[in-house]
Amino acid sequence: MGEDRNEREILAPEDAAGxxxxxxxxxxxxxxxxxxxxxxxxxxxxLVDGHAAKSGLSLRGGERIVVVIPEPEPLDLEAxxxxxxxxxxxxHLAVVDKPAGLVVHPAAGHSRGTLVHALLHHLDRxxxxxxxxxxxxxxxxxxxTSGLLLVAKSDPAHRILSERLAAREISRxxxxxxxxxxxxxxxxxxxxxxxxxxxxxxxxxxxEGGKAAETRYWRLNRLGEFDYIRLxxxxxxxxxxxxxxxxxxxxxxxxxxxxxRRKKLSGLARDGRDRAQGVLEIMRRQALHAARLSxxxxxxxxxxxxxxxxxxxxxxxxxxxxxxxxxxxxxx
Length: 332
Description:
- By secondary structure, this protein is α+β, with helices and mostly antiparallel strands.
- It has helices spanning about 20-30, 35-40, 115-120, 155-165, 240-250, 270-280, 310-320, and strands spanning about 5-10, 45-50, 50, 65-70, 85-90, 95-100, 145-150, 170-180, 185-190, 195, 205, 215-225, 225-235, 290-295, 305.
- Helix 6 (about 270-280) packs antiparallel against helix 7.
- The termini are far apart.
C-alpha cells in the first residue's frame, strides 16, 4: 500500500465462526470505533488470510486478520498566536473555553484565525484523526456559541472520546435565553434533524429522514418575555439546540438564522418590545453558552468535570432582564 503504516495481527478463534468481522474487531480493538474499522474495510486496509475483506464479511473461525492502520496525514495549517483559555491539558487531551465569535476549524470563508490555528500554537500536538482541517476536534461549537470544548491530543484518546460521545457517555450542558415561555418547567424535545429542504444553509426538524435528535431542558428563571434555561444534549446534531428550540416556537435570543432576533418583536406589547430591543442591543449574538462538560478520562477512567461561567455579555443580558435574581437558580 506504499504509505507509512502500522499493523495489528489477530488470529480469529474457532468460536468466532458466524461473527461479523467489524463486530469481532470492535471487541478485539476497543481503541478503534466500529465506524473507523468499517472505513478501513472499505479502503482495503483489513486483510483476511491475505485478501482485502469485504463489508459485512462473516468469519469462519481460524482466519489470520491483519489490520493496516495508516499514519495520520501531516498537518499543513500554520499555527497562529491567538489568545486561548485552556482550562486543562495533559498528554492525551485538553479542555478549552471558547469565546463567542471564534470559528472552530477552517472552512469556506474562514481559512485563518480559527480555534484549530490557535490550538496548533498553544499545544504541543493534536490528534490527526480529524484530518488536516479538524485535528483534535472531538465535537464542535457554532461560531457564536461560547463555552467548553474537548480537544484530543492523541489518536487513541480521540477514538475513545468519539466512541463515548456517540454512546452518550460525555455530558454537555448549556445555558440559553429563549423567546417566550416554554410549555413546561422541564421537558424533552425529540425530532429528527437534517438539512432544510428550502434553505440549504439551515438545518430543520424533518417529518421524514434526518438523524434522531434529543434535547432536554430545565427552566432556571422566567424573565418577562424570556426563559433562562439549562439544556443537556443527548445527541450532537448540527445546530441541534437552536433548531429544536426554534421548532418549538422559542428560538434562542439573538439567533439570526433561526428567528431569534427581530422576528419576535412584532407580537409584543410596547413595554415588552422595549425590553426585548434593549436586551438585543446587549446580546449581539445567540444567547447560548456551553457551561458544563463531564466525561471519564480516556486513560485511567477518572471522572473529569469542567464548568465555564457565563460570559460578560450573557450576564449583562440576564441582569438587564431580571436583576440579581438571575444568579439565584443557576445550580438548579
